[in-house]
Design a protein that fits this description.
186 residues; alpha/beta; Rossmann fold; five-stranded parallel sheet; two-stranded parallel sheet
Length: 186
């Protein structure tokens, strides 16, 4: 499915620690694709009700959006930026939004520090498995130099992923490495 021409890049703002990196990279991706940027924070009312004041968590969410918008504006001044606080569980909210997005950008949730493991319950993993558009996972440090890597299996969705990966590689003047994994016969 081809996204509409005005489909935004959606930046998932989780924590104040990762929001600037996510906003910066999402703004650059939006600029590179000629797309608007939509900053999104999923707000959990049940957790907010446990706080001494409901006003505090909501105010922190608004500050998070304002700071991320400023960071995005510095990274890509020509990109239109909007923000929204949405009630709900982050992964469920992002999966719904991915159906009308061009790209969703999310922090790695600490996976880069996990060594040899990739926790299946990490939000970035859950989103990547269920999203209706490509997902870009932001690491805390810049990625190492190397090719753009894409997994293919011959399905329609993998052909879509391959086309997206070709575009990413071309914009970065990088090589493209397509990998197909097959199980050996019993």
């Amino acid at each position: 499915m081809t996204p509409p021409a005005d489909a935004p890049v959606v930046a998932a703002l989780g924590s104040p620690e990762t929001a600037p990196q996510v906003a910066r990279l999402a703004a650059r991706e939006a600029a590179g694709h000629g797309r608007p940027l939509r900053l999104l924070h999923a707000f959990n009312w049940s957790a907010a009700l446990e706080d001494p004041s409901v006003v505090g968590p909501r105010a922190r969410a608004e500050e998070l959006l304002e700071g991320a918008a400023a960071t995005a504006g510095e990274a890509a001044p020509a990109v239109p930026v909007s923000g929204e606080i949405v009630e709900g569980a982050p992964v469920a909210v992002l999966v719904r939004r991915s159906e009308s997005a061009f790209l969703v950008v999310i922090g790695d949730g600490g996976m880069a520090r996990c060594g040899a493991c990739i926790p299946a319950d990490a939000p970035a993993v859950q989103l990547a498995a269920r999203a209706g558009c490509p997902v870009l996972v932001v690491r805390p440090e810049p990625p190492p130099q190397g090719p753009v890597l894409v997994g293919v299996d011959g399905s329609r969705s993998s052909r879509t992923a391959l086309a997206f990966a070709f575009g990413c590689a071309a914009r970065r003047s990088a090589r493209l490495l397509a990998v197909r994994v097959v199980e050996p016969p019993p």
